[in-house]
Input
Amino acid sequence: MASKGSLFAYNLRAKKKIVPELARTLPLPVNDKAQTEPLQIDAVFTGFSVDVTDSESIRLLCLNGGFGQGMLSRAFPACLTATRELVRKRKRNTNVEPTQDTVNEPLCLFLEEAFFLMHTLNILRVKDLFGKSIDVRAAFERFRKVKQNFLACYSAYLYLKSKNWVIKSGIKFGGDFVIYVKGPQFYHASYIEGKQIDSHTVDGLDFQGFNRIAETTAKDVLFLEVHYPSNLDLSDAGACLEQLKDIRVAELFTKHHNYLAARNQS
Output
């Protein structure tokens, strides 16, 4: 995938405390050295997200690439943090015990990262709610029905992943993604990412809203311009998958200008 620009993080804000159980990470999921078979993770497409329920698979995805988010938690599922939460509550002399439902909390993958695990890494096996297997092309077609601009979002996701960012859903901040250095257990998010497709520019009101949210949450705004090849037939799923490498992504940064500080310096 062609690209231009240089994405960097200059405003890193480290977390004050890092949970020991979440500190040992790798960039991508890898198989155990003792296992000779290829890594395969089972998941279920619910119609809106892709859920993983096996605790070992959840641990592997969360700690190696920062994939997914707990269905009931703000970040990491209960199978990774239940022990620590239990110790904390016992220190407070509370009688609350983690239930079986919270310990078995599923991991929700948003569509782009689920397709990345299927299409690029080839480690995710997805089935529908009726147990029928979904291959890569069928998943691509289904995801596009759920999210009309899925191709542009996935192209932006691939670009950010190639820069070794840890990517989370940005819906909470009004963007497509929020991106982290190393992972959310180490640093706060550096950027809120939005995208522009070909000649479609961001509306002025949306641009102002992006900047307001970014300033309030101590983040920066990053726009990714996604440019499709002129001969790409967007209605042909096979052609879209074959020409992913020809889609160009460019970076566009915004910069705040402090007029009062500039006037005082002059």
